[in-house]
Amino acid sequence: MEHLEIPVEFQSKLRRRLIHQDGRTDAAIIDALHSHFPVDSEKNIWGFWHSGILSMPSHWQRNVAQWVRLNKSDGWTVRILDNCPESPNYALNFIPAEMLPQCFIDRTVDGKYVGQHSADFVRGACIYQHGGVYMDVGILPILPVDQICWNQLVDPTTPYEVSTVLSHGTLPVNFFLAGRQGDKFIKRLNDMFLYIWKGRTNCTGVSQHPLLAPTLIDPNTGKFIEFPPGIADLADGVRMPDLVDYSMQMFCWSQLACTKDLNSGFDGVEYWTEKTLLFPRVAEAHRREEIVNWDGPRFFKLLCLRRHEEARLESPDDWKSAHDLVWSILADSAMVKIFKAAQLFTSVTLGMMMERPENVELDNVSGTCQDRLRVLYSHELKGAPGRVLEVVNFTGYVQAQDAALINTKHLESVSATSKQAA
């Protein structure tokens, strides 16, 4: 394997590994994951692909293979659940039926987001049932999950119980979710999500549901609130109701974080402000924004750029951008979340570019910047021992949401309704 020198400006943030953690090929790792592994600890990394891991596009399979390489030596077991009853990783082999909506069990989920919402159904349920970390298959990991959050979740001297990503200081994002087995916040999040899906097969119009509408509709105007600052640049002309329909689990989290259950004493505000370990989306998962500004085609072009001297001479600006992109991700990010959302956004994202027929396997070409990124972090480099993720302070957001958007009497009825649903 090519031995690359760490640029001077990144030498304080990276060091070389002494040994390879897993020398198997991607294909060998994926084939091994097509097996049933009984759960024997909380150290589980969960993912989902509706039709099974072997049918997953190769670029997502390569991500999952890296999950194994980075975390196996720390005692983690990776599982990609599916909705295929004959599969060894059928979701109901791990999750009780009562924790899943009927449309998932009957395999009648329809609409534009079948895969996305099927993944939403299992992410909270498997964490509550067994503990661990759920990651979307679009995550290309840089740090092991112990370092990202798990060491703090299991440390009795910290207050943290769950961990996820915070977008622009306002919205929890569920592509990465971690929690201890039996966590009461995750249980209520799953109960709320399950209740909203009762009698449904798709998400159309869910933004009008009484459990969500109070946080989304301005009581003075009766209209949907505008996107919070920082979210509008991601919306790309999408209507707020459509975004809520697509991302309803995230909005369930926001609602639950502002809810106090007067019957049980559960305090969502306390959980949100004191027991949730969040790290910022841009800094830790979407650092490429600083260089490519959500330009999917440009990001793909940079990743596919050859590293040889001729490429640097032909396109010096692109070569410099690609160099900065790769090394800043390696040094300063926990992961790369490859964003797709093809049915929601009109702009072309990196995930869309990777799935175009003419681009299949281009992310796996030896000698490219993508190859450098993938090989270095999984085999040769790791973050410096002192690398700690930034932790976000969100108390002010909860207080602002509670004052501006939440109707207290309605929340009391929500608590009662959620309790009945559970």
From TrEMBL:
Q: Which InterPro entries did the record assign?
A: AfumC-like_glycosyl_Trfase, Nucleotide-diphossugar_trans
Gene Ontology MF terms in the entry = glycosyltransferase activity
**Origin superkingdom:** Eukaryota
Write down the Pfam families for this protein, in alphabetical order. Caps_synth
| The protein's name | Glycosyltransferase family 32 protein
